[in-house]
Amino acid sequence: MLRFPTNRAWLSRCGLLVCTIGLLSPFIECIDARADQRLVPESRAELQLSYAPVVRDVAPGVVNIYTRRLVSQRQSALFNDPFFERLFGATPFGLPRERIQSSLGSGVIIEAGGVIVTNHHVIKGSDQIIVVLADRREFEAEVMGIDEATDLAVLRIDAGQEPLPFVELGDSDWLEVGDLVLAIGNPFGVGQTVTSGIVSALARTRVGLSDLSSFIQTDAAINPGNSGGALVTLDAKLIGINTAIYSRGGGSIGIGFATPSNLVRVVVDGIVSGGRAVRPWLGVKGQAVTQDIADSLGLSRPMGVLVSELHADSPLHAVGLRVGDIVVSVDEHEVFDLQGLRFRFVTRPIGASVNLRVIRNGRDFDLEVALIAPPEVPLRDIRNISGENPLAGSVVGNLSPAFAEELNVDSNKSGVIVLQIGQGYGARLGLRPGDIVTEINGKTIKSTAELVSVLRKQRAQWRVVIERGGKSMSVVVTL
What we know:
Helix content is about 20%, strand content about 35%. The protein is of the alpha+beta class and about 475 residues long. It has 4 domains: about 10-35, no CATH class; about 50-65 and about 105-280, Beta Barrel (Thrombin, subunit H), CATH 2.40.10.120; about 285-370, Pdz3 Domain (Roll); about 385-479, Roll (Pdz3 Domain), CATH 2.30.42. A hairpin with a 4-residue loop joins strand 11 (about 230-235) and strand 12.
């Protein structure tokens, strides 16, 4: 690389002062400007620039979570022999048949009354949850509710009349790539730890963690034990709940993901007010617009979600959205895949409305969509199947968008879903919970009433068609 001297006197002595003709003048002035921007600290305060004021505000509201559960202790088959039990007792050589298994994580107090949000996987399967505050006080927590679809859980602790320190929820829609953030949690159980970084990316939907989330990616160090901890901005607002990392050896490599605060707010509000999170329902299927699709449709670039299917009761169908339309933004936030579209809906409260920018046949227009809860139509009508038929011993129900959301299955599906399998022909047939019965002996099954009516007819041979994991399976059964 060529390096030019910037001393004007040196250039003059060499007869190279060509800035009069405008060749080096911009270059020299640029370097002089950069030099002017490098300021010497002029006060003690400038020498002590620090994140400490933010940490002082936020850290008291971030807690450590310890969970315990009772698990069975495997023993040698030798000790289960009646001879040894008579000789040494039910627990030979003092070996316990059960043991306590512990795990750890983090959480964030978001209300002075002791409401805490954390990840569901932090407390899953636990028999006891202990919350340790930053001042080392310990409380046993109760679970107010969980939301598996977003991997969030809401806890509550009782500290009496004393208000607890909490972290105020921020607006994650205001985040930009490059913003400074702090991650606070309890990595590896060493105690509360603060790390710093930036927002590396936004709207990460293809990380395999949740169909509803559009994750914040950060390079702030997040390690095992940080799950459920706080991701905060420099104005001391909770902008995300640290959820997962990419890692080759279990530690941080600078790729961490946090659930955005706007989704956290909706889940917490639903659980606190009604015991579970109820999210707005789309009733739509679609795919990301690739370069090939963009070229075929005459778009300038790949953007938006190409609508491939609409539920008859969908609020988008009600306002005129059609199959083949491209949804490019929601309230001026661009969307690039179905997960991103769903995220923009589920972070809004039911009863509100959103504005969709849609492209149809090369023209764009807006649609105003009212947000509704998933409808309970048809009623679930849960029934136990008995008798001499291939589904005997199973429990089935009608799928509706609301019931599908509860079961964490595709809310666009309809028909009869298998809920439980007991003793009977259903177990022999190989039915599983989650299977959808679509046809029996050539008869399309749309409801549990139709299913029961068909099964009442005595037959020696049955042909059953079910849907499992998006694939159709046909089985012939002879009783």
